[in-house]
Amino acid sequence: MPVTETEAVRLENVSYSADGQQILKQVTGSFPEGRITTLVGPSGAGKTSLFRLINGLRATTSGNIYVQEKPIEVYNPVELRRKVGVALQSATMINGSVFENLSLPLKLQGKELAQDEALDLLDLVGLKRDSIQQNIKDLSGGQRQKLSIARTLVNRPDVLLLDEITASLDRVSQQDIEELIIRINQNYGTTIVWITHNLQQAISLGDYTWVMIEGEVVETGDSSLLNNPSNEQVKRFVKGENA
Amino acid sequence: MNYLTLSLALIFVIIPLLLSKVLRLELEKDTIIAAIRSIIQLLAVGYLLQYVFDAENMLYILLMIVLMIAAATQNARRKGRSIQGITWKLILTFVVVEVLTQGILLGLSITPPTPQYIIPISGMIIGNSMVLSILFLNRFTAEVEDHEDETELILSLGGTPKQAIHRQLITSIKASTIPTIESQKTIGLVQLPGMMSGQIIAGADPVQAVQFQLLILFLILTTAVVTSILLGYMSYPTLFNERMQLVKSRMRE
Ligand SMILES: Nc1ncnc2c1ncn2[C@@H]1O[C@H](COP(=O)(O)OP(=O)(O)O)[C@@H](O)[C@H]1O
Ligand SMILES: [Mg+2]
């Protein structure tokens, strides 16, 4: 990737171990500001773990992470986590209604989310307006994903980490979410890092792509690299995914 | 009652032993151990109390209370091994509860400052505080583990550790104190409290026994709530590090 671009997030030799198992090995690279970088790789490659490190939920074992050119340790953790929003694959909800989940990020700051703002957010992610008082127990997996994205957006993060958010969506919803993320990226200049299992999505949406295998970043570059990988491991992975 | 009549009471140990033998319940060994232990332990306590009462020395009273707190801590800490510094947190909890209750009892002259009052009441307070600590720690460690996803979610959205653990903390405080509160609602209807029964058997006027029992019940109410809250607010910060990250290995032992 061109060196002239500003780096929203930069990783330097980041390693991470948990329970005696090495999960990430010497990860180095960056996510350019205002761009969409897609992150692909087999299950267990360490993609989700990488997000946890960048959002500050876990500490690196060694190496450094920079957000907007400052080491993440410089930020107050609360500030860092609002700046670098994450929507995890599990789309965890707190007990209660759609509105309670949507307003959670503001409630944590002692503020209230206005009703019409909440409705706008539901529109944005393609959830019905009258679902606002629905209990989250009655939501489908796809609806939870949409709500999870909307909730992460409430903090207006500069960097948005999205973990397989379209995996449980039908085709139409998937397209809606893809369009939404592109719109957020273009309208607000939000830096997007998007983990996906869908290689077609990784190519079409990503300006850049990272391929991770067994805790290592094996290839990075323009997302079209997935059409013609040079690295043997990546070739095998792409072949397996397309099979 | 004398030792001769007490030895007749051993019939009540022989009955379960025989039944266990006949029905092959294999409870003989535990029954014998339980009987012997209760005889030795209670007699020892009885003689010790007699000695302390006769000596009328405040230092002995203090020593007894220290022993009670040490034993209670030893018992409860096993349930909270996953919480850093649990031993000191328990000791502090027991000391606070003891000082608070005795301070009010003695300070307002509700009970006289004699070992006959201080020691048994302290025993009940510390014993109850210990049970509450165990109930709380069991529940809290389970809640934290079961709701780790929610804790992580709140942290990831920029919540503080306190916000991230608040629901689990409140649930555990409530769950551990509710049995104490509930049991007091039906007290006297089904079963007379042990202490009150003992006093009545020993010849006390029932109404006076009731008054004393009420005092104890209210003391236990305070003990329960204060124990859970103190222990809870001292425990939750140890689950996080200074970067507001959940330190998982501590809960998972
Ligand atoms: N807290 C943890 N403790 C131990 N191992 C973990 C933990 N979290 C993840 N792992 C392991 O780390 C590896 C990478 O997991 P993950 O980051 O979820 O990969 P991906 O998102 O690429 O599927 C897996 O082998 C997983 O079992
Ligand atoms: Mg994952």
From TrEMBL, chain A:
Top-rank lineage group of the source organism: Bacteria
GO BP of this protein: phosphate ion transmembrane transport
Presence of keyword Phosphoprotein: no
PROSITE patterns documented for this protein: ABC_TRANSPORTER_1, ABC_TRANSPORTER_2
Domain ABC transporter: 9-238
Protein name: Putative ABC transport system ATP-binding protein
Keywords: ATP-binding, Nucleotide-binding, Transport
Molecular function GO terms recorded: ATP binding; ATP hydrolysis activity; phosphate transmembrane transporter activity
GO CC annotation: membrane
InterPro entries named in the record: AAA+_ATPase (IPR003593), ABC_transporter-like_ATP-bd (IPR003439), ABC_transporter-like_CS (IPR017871), P-loop_NTPase (IPR027417), PstB-like (IPR005670)
TrEMBL record, chain B:
InterPro entries: UPF0014_fam (IPR005226)
GO CC, any one term: plasma membrane
Protein name: Putative ABC transport system permease protein
Pfam families, A to Z: UPF0014
Membrane topology value: Multi-pass membrane protein
Coiled coil: none
Bilayer-crossing regions: 6-23, 35-53, 59-76, 88-111, 117-137, 214-236
Protein family according to the UniProt entry: Belongs to the UPF0014 family.
Keywords for this protein: Membrane, Transmembrane, Transmembrane helix
Protein location: Membrane
